Fold these 3 entries.
Entry 1:
Amino acid sequence: MLGHVFLTQLKRGIRDKQSIFWCLAFPIALGTLMNFAFGSIYDSAKSTPIDVRVIVEEKAIDEYKTMQAFAKLGDTNLEEDALPFVQLLEELEYEDGTKMIHALYEDTDEDIANTITISGLNQITLEVSKNSIESSILSTIISTYKQNVDRIISVMNDHPEKMESSDSLMEETTESREYVKVTGLLGENKDPFVSYFYNIMAMVCTMCSMLAFGAIVGNQANQTVTGIRVDASPVNKFAYELAQYFAINLIQLAVSFLALVYFLFVLKVKFGGNLQYVFLTTALGTFLGTALGYMVGHFGNISRKAKENILVLISIGGGFLAGLMVNVMKAVIETKCPIINRINPSAVITDAFYALNVYGPGARYYRSISYIVLLTVAFIIIGAILSRRKQYASL
Amino acid sequence: MQVYKTFLKVIKNYRQGIIMYACIVIAMVTVLGATTNNGSNIFEKKSYNVIVNNQDDSEIASLLVAYLSENNKVSEDTFTEDQITDQLYYQLVCEYIVIPEDFGEKFLSDGTNIINAKYDEALPDGMFVNMQMNQFLNSVKSYVDLGYDLQEAADKTTTSMDDSFVTMKNSEGPGFDIQLYTKLVFLPFGILSIIFSGMLPAVISFNEKEKKNRTMISPIKLTTRNIAIVFGVTTVSVVVTAVVLLIAVAPKLGTYINDSKLWLSVLNAYVYTFVVTMLLSMVASFPIVSKKNDGVNSVSFITNIIGLSFAFLGGTFVGLDMLGDGVKKIGQFLPNYWYSTACIKIWQEGASFTEVVPCYGLQLLFGVVCLAIGIAATRFFRENRE
């Protein structure tokens, strides 16, 4: 009997082309757009040379010449790039060895956001077009430099005999001690925008719970004619629905895997972690989504429309809290009210992908997976309990 | 009038969906408002969220934390390793700093690499916070070497770190209100979602073959019926937009009630609303959209696909300045892009009505194109059916 119901539901599901179309169209359309929209944001935020226009005024060179003369170094035929601050700009590098500053000394038509004007040894100004990380880094470089120069000037004022060693003192202005030891962030793919794809997969799972929901509501005698027939037939209701559940899972699994294959091999999104585990997570997420539809389908005697709205609320509201619209939302919830991330179906699915990427298939990943399994089991049990003892005496 | 009244009656059946989406959108707008800080047009160094785990009770450790707090939002709360990694990964926090127990001693004995920091090395944010720490500690150490005590050295360092040498271009006028701006930029997603999820099923139900045929043999012209439906959709949309606008603007209504920025933004939201109603009429004219079947509710999928894709490409969720050139080129064909551009012009550049009109116009152009496609599609499918 179970096999018969399973096959019938499978055939019904496969013939329901509209449902399959929407379940597939949703991730493909959104995934393509997101890949297009976010594909390069992380790369563009990486440490790249900061464009800055540098204006060196004559009096700055003259001042340095005077200082060189005092120091009796002889070389007073100076160019602007011999100024200590200009040298400092040329030498600065990021931790990965990339040049930090791309200084432009010539007039250019390019729209450059930051302009440094060097008017003297410690008379340096910065003009910025907006508050940004680039302008902040530039202001810190200048302020550190000015601070050191001021200190050296005060040393020379207090000890004029050190004037002759002013050049070595100036060199000291560009040196600083490193106090911070850096540890990099874990994770195969550190791009936080990949979480949008985790969220689309979670959304595929939760939105497609509609399939299970449709089948379950269809079995209810107060909702459809088929439901009246099913209710009158001598079959165990729970066994009947379980067979349906597995059949829908099979269809849904095919849809989710197709969407995942599209993401991984066509859009070439790096989910991070071993591929087998990525597929495993998708499969478990799909079971969870179907279980959600199964549970909501059994919610009391409320109308189909109301139940549908509950399902939409869980998938859209849950998606928002899991980071579908604003990707940091899941981390915010994790610090403010982590319990939501444990019971929100979208969040547990997203978290499993995230854990796999950042921590690999270890304890953290298995903990996330266990939440998916627990929620799935809980939804099925709640659904099964709600499905019991329903009487349709008036029908 | 008869069809218009009937449409409003039919809409009542779908009020649950409208109310539910409205609640979701209001919650989203409220959360967004609470998680954004206000902006300024005077130069301010970028301020980052950092977590500091200070295990040292030395004076210099406290001075360092105090200095970091002046420039950044420092949290000394206790988090689990997982919570810290989550926050670093999602860039909610840019750096996790551990000041070890023996930091004070090592600092005074010329030690290096004595603070442990964790961050994404590919991004400049963490490195910037490190620059601040190194600058502070180097300066304090120099002053200490010159004979000052730690507190004096820290005071002198802080005093010498002023940013008065930095000026902003276009620094006149008040800074723009990021909180309100963020809420307003987010509104298109809400407006579109509510209108589509609530009204698309109602419009589709009017287009069902049986009902449409009945209308066609009645004395009401099809054009009159269509106009009445459009008016019905517009009426409800105007109310929906008024509600979400009010929720978004309410906390700042007193401040901006006499400011043209607010009214230009209201106009912008209404232009977008009319465009969405035109888009709705186009979508409803395609037979691929059915109200529902036994399986999935296609309206939910359409709402999400259109709503999310427009929002992602049009700068609703992620600012236009962060999107690549290719994305912007595609986005220019969408009303969300021009809505966001209008918001930028109004709130960041202080644009006047005449400067924002092109943005309104381009949104309306999109709507007119949708309307034309919708009419063509209706005729095409009607002829095919006949």
Entry 2:
Amino acid sequence: MKKSTAIVIISIVFLLFAVFFIYPVIEVLKVAFLKESGEMTLEYFLGILKDPIYLEGLWNALQVGVVSTIVTFAISFPLALASNFWNFPFKKVLTILVLAPLVLPPFVGAVGVKHIFGVEGAFNSLLIDFGLMSSSSPYDWLGEGRFWAVVMMLALHLYPILYMNIVSALRNLDPAMEQAAQNLGASPWSRLRKITLPLCMPGVFAGASIVFIWSFTELGVPLVFDYSRVAPVQIFDGLKSLESDPTPYAIVAVMLVISVTVFVVSKLILGRSKIGTPSRPKGQREIKNLSPFAGWIVSAGFMILFLVASIPHLGVLFLSVSKDWYGTVFPESLTGAHYADGLSHPMVIDSIKNSLLYASGATLIDIVLGCVIAYVIVRSTVWGRNLLDALMMLPLAVPGLVLAFGYFALSQENEPFHFLVEPLGSPALLLVIAYAIRRLPYVVRAIVSGLEQSDVTLEEAALSMGAPPRRAFHRIALPLIGANLIAGSILAFAFAVLEVSDSLILAQQMEHYPVTKAIYALLGTLGSGHEIASALGVWAMVFLGVAIVGAFFLVGKRGRNLFRL
Amino acid sequence: VIGSLGLVAFAPLLFKAKKPVYSRAGDIQLNVVSPYNEAVRHEFAISFHQYYREKKGKSVSFNWVNPSDVSETKGLVVETLTNGDSGQRNDWDGVDVLFGAGEQEFTAQVSDETKHFAKLQVFQSHKEWFAEDVIPASFTGERYYDEQHQWVGTSLVQFGICYNTEILTRLGMKEPESWRALADPQFVGKVALADPQKSHSMAKAFEMLLQQSIHQHLLSTRAKTAETPREMKARAIRNGWAEGLNLIQRISANARYFTDRSTKIPRDVFQGDAAVGMCVDFYGRTYHEKLLKEDGSSRLQWIVPKQGSSVSVDSIAVLRNAPEPDLAQEFVEFVLSERGQLLWNARVGTEYGPVKRSLRKLPIRRDMYTADRLAHFVDASALPYETTNGFEYTPEYTAVGFNAMRMIIRVMCIDVHDELVAAWQALIDADFPERATHHFHDVAIVSYERTMGEISDQIKSGKKLETVGMRKRLASVFRRNYQQTIRLAAQER
């Protein structure tokens, strides 16, 4: 890549990022570092580290982050290996089914989970029916095990991110490397340990860093499960209590420092494969046909995971058709009334239109920006590209709420971002930009890991044959990273539709509500609020489900299978 | 693929109902800030739309705005990020009517130097409505309209206890009759509470609990030798306050959480995750009805605690700079008219009753509770002016320290909730040993005098950083107390 082009791209991206990310965040963070008199101070920041309650909140958030990432890895790595190396019954269907968690915002899923694992929920009823629990003292799973409830909810929601990343990493491995190891007598275990795992580390890193930062800064799930001593909830509570208290802003600053540190350190340790960049696969990997018994075991593993991961979805589904669901495994009586009430609501149709508009706009911006940014990061040697790389992860490190508050403040009258709201009289542009910035890391990560694993010599060959750089990118690099690009875009789109914080804060009037805010508003409805909100949640699941399966279908038809289905 | 996506995306259109008349463009628009839910908004908009058309031949459209979108979010964010320049805020620009908050929020606006509200014309046009037997100036110690006629109550609100009868049976417990019942150690992790910092009605309930305790001490305290009546009264108030705080500590120690969504409370109670909760009357009644079985039983019940709850009001006001001042005044008049009042509790389908769902709130006008009208009421037995349960709110005891009380509950119960629960559990396990229990209940640092004096002054001073500093210091004291309680309980066990 030409240095001058790289510099121009870097400058534009830096500028965009400075205006739409750094500026709003600084606007919020400055509260943490400025005294009332306007002097700089570290007092509040250091104060957090001295306060046992906030320190415990941070420690708990860190534990949630670390444990969720470990559990997520434990789920997704074997899954990715199995789908990459083996054939087993119903593989095509099962490998799509395990992506199910992507279709439901965790805060809606948590509502379903509460009905299943509640004291009088379906799970306890099942145990009581089987005589495994006394009906006089049902266990309070969510009350007693809040930490684990949060961790499991997050792990089960987030494992597809890591799974998709590892699968694309594995797909790009050259089977020759493993074959060589096998020829030299390496056992499957040591091949996995010494060849496969190190080579797919960039993919693991890409996914794991997203999972960690997501769970570290997650607000919705701990809030629904009433796990209050955790930093994001403390921030939320602090921001909502009507005091000009710099404490929540200072916690944001501390979290930002932790997130960035974890990102940089883990990138240094994990991000680079220890045995160098692998060459592009030259041959098609031979996929092993398992014995029928082993095959069915693997299929059963996938199926069990799918079922466990679908607990929130099932909860939401049952709730959406239940009249009363209390103390029984399944709802006592069913009704379609909640769909009629929910979907006929004037707010709902508008919210669907809005979400589609906001999310597709954001995804489009992300694809364009993601491609150029990733290309500069991987293919150029220009100064600042590593900084750019780290910068791209920052939107994940900043809790959505903070960015949302920054945007909100800056879009008020006489503030610099007001021009984004004024012409349309709606927050559409603001939300598209907010979603785009927040979801950019997925696209950038996905494309960067694709480019890192695709062989640069192919592009160099094209360039040396006289192809202009743009054409080389378009004809060579882009097709090579197609799967990564689509995976990244699906994630960006799905997560944009499911975005919560920006949606809650920036969409003020009912006609501008996106789906998540509509669900949130319906949840608060007196009477059947949860059931009606679940009906809309089910719609969102079906829609995103069709979108994801559809994307697979489109990619598959052109012969470029995503994730080796 | 695109086709099926389109199909799913447009499927909800099948269910799409016609937009209600009031949300279509009308001849004139009313902008209302209201915390009320969809049902209340729908019924009042439809009914007023019809009323206005009959009266003036014009159609009104409604723009409902959530207060959180105006005051909480906007106020907070703008205030924090624009150097605390709250005096110049134009939060209320473009708003005609504020419909449905408690008296205290309105009082705060009126006493504010910016004076947001216009005088209500209804006090002139319908003087007869403001007689003692229609809308009294005050009741159970609560004010029902502003002396300067800037706001007026529209419906009655009472705070009480909702409980799940099936869970109580399982726990082998009696149905609660007073606030005190919520402090029973058997309710550990089973009480649903809202955060009084965020829920005004919850804060109000805690205030009533404190008032009740003060009242009881005033009745039972006897003069010591050489004590003047004044000193005796001060002592009674002081002790009543401390004991009330202790009760709040124990109830909070049983709390499963302090939520910021008050609808969550009756929901978690009827769903069985909590056994009891504190919530307002119409939440309790709504869910009671939702769960009503054919035999007339419902697992969710709601009661007014004995001598523990005043009857306050949800109010209405017109903004000084309302874009449509005449329409806004007309709306106030409508809400207080018989037609508007009956909307609160008449059955669906009756004359002046709601069209879709009964609202389960009680009208403020006393003259609505007549036998012929009550026949159409959903809650005909909830006669708020008859059954007050003997509680009289006395503002001079606690009103000055209302915000201080909110902060005290935060530092004593919410910020240190984990420690509070652990200490409470340690006491239960050790069967309430004396020293440890005494330590647990030590609220000297937030005594009545300090609360009404320096703590209130600090909050009112507007020096927010200092207030935050004080809050943290107080929280650390309670944290230490609870940790010490755990140690002592272990020793004494």
Entry 3:
Amino acid sequence: MSRGAAVGDQPVDASAPDLRPGGGGSDLSDEDQKDLELVEAIRGGDHDAWGTLLARHQERLFNICLRMVRDRESAADCTQDAMVRIIQGLDSYDGRARLSTWMIRVTMNVVLSRMRREKVRRHPSIEALGEGEGRSREGVSTRRREGAGEPAPEEGVESHEGRSVVFDALQRLSPEQRAILILRDARGLEYEQIAEVLDVALGTVKSRLFRARAALREALEAEGLRGPEGGSDSWESR
Amino acid sequence: MTGGTYNPQIDERLLLAYVEGELTADQRRGLLAAMEADPAQRERLEAMRRDRAALRAIPDEPVPAGLLAAVADALEREAILAENPSPAPETPARRQPTRHRRPMSLWVGPLAAAAAVALIGGVALLQLLEGRVDGAGGEVELPELAMSDPEAASDPAAGEMLALRGEASVADEGEARAAAAPGEVEARLARAEATEPAWVAEPVDAERAAELAREGRLVMRVRVTRTQEMLRWLARVDAGSSRVALRRPDEGLVQSVHAWRRDLEVRRGEPQPPIFASRAFEPLDVSDLAPETDEELRPGLLLLEMEASRRAIDSAARAMERQDGVLQVLLEPLETPIHPPAPGPASSAAHEGGGVLWWRQSPEEWTPRVTVPILIEPAR
């Protein structure tokens, strides 16, 4: 693999590679450079740097998890698990990918693994739900959840309602399709970064992305939702 | 779609490039011309473009409070489990219940040290805001601000700050909870020094706070430490609507909301009154805070235009709730209002192009707003 070492569910390499730009770290933005400085500081024994590093990325990672699993509680659990793995696996980060990309990769591995476990656990009860309910190809109910995992009213019910249209449609997609749309659209990753995160070839990213977009369209149409007609503001709440 | 030479792989990439907006103008025209015979497919592609825009427009949500502390918890548990390997949990890291989290060691240890420093300032400020100090075991009246701050004597805002503290002696029965009873100062200070957070109550409730806000007599005392925490809170004021933006949206109708800030200098460890470190209120520029930097927040007095409704005040307060369920905000009455600086060429220029927050909504939904002073205190 030509990317940062995997952590997620995979063994970690305990070596601590050179992170200096040039080992794949060219074209570093200021943010990337700051990340690498923090990594060096951590490896040099500065444990204060952990808090800074995670604080810089926590919102990004949490929102990836939130879009994948939808409810805040599960998303917080996923983010926490991912951060623990990031801390435990930092020694395996070899600097060939941007640190932010590597962290997203770890996070996505955690989320996808969790979703697979949940799918296995949930399958019998899903079967027992009965017929007539919308169900994705993976057997996960697409019934609009009325309150499950919803934020408390003071946390923005109105905003949640506004977004639930897209979120509902996303739930109909496979986790992998959801992942690629989230990485591309919600996080704005380039194709190459998505390839690094998902550990697939560049061509595969493009073909999967197009199919994921087509699947999302089908999901919206299947629920009788034509989607935004007048631009992105149509999805806004209220 | 492209006649007898249809190649799904090539076509998919071309279509994807169209949806992603990666085609040149010529390529785009060529593709659209090729699809003239298939209007349904063309409409489908346009819908995919709109779907893409919609996905990109979904705003990020704030991170649950205490997430990093929970990570530290998990690491500490794992460290303990590594030393005492049985019984092993099913999964290595689980988030703990949201209440009664204890301070963690590990990498948050140094942060705790920093927080301890802030605690000193916080306690001092708490003393000052109680309207009393205890220099030698007994209560004495707070020295006049002008005694410590040469500029305060001629500074109306400094006088307003005194009024803020003076409210602690309000005898009105309806607001009696806001006034420190004998012994209450010591009790609150004792709580401030304890491990658990001290702010557990709102001296006035949201309903009363809204009334006070409409009279210009509400002050919100909030405890935040980091700029990002402050930004997240600002984005959740007014019911946490997702339509709140920290940057002026490119399109759509917006109600802009302004804020001003005045820095305070807190002499840590000394029972000094807060001193204004800046000479006047300045328009708050969130670009100083956003987007990626997360710095220690300076104590200060913020004037924010807010909706003076119970719902909005309650939402703003609840948005300051920590993971352990403790509100980091106190709603208290002011004796006299604190007014924002009068609009002038300087402040207008500073706010050119909009406000500090933007609500995406049509004008008929715009809500009247009042200026609410928000005292930013060091958090622990």
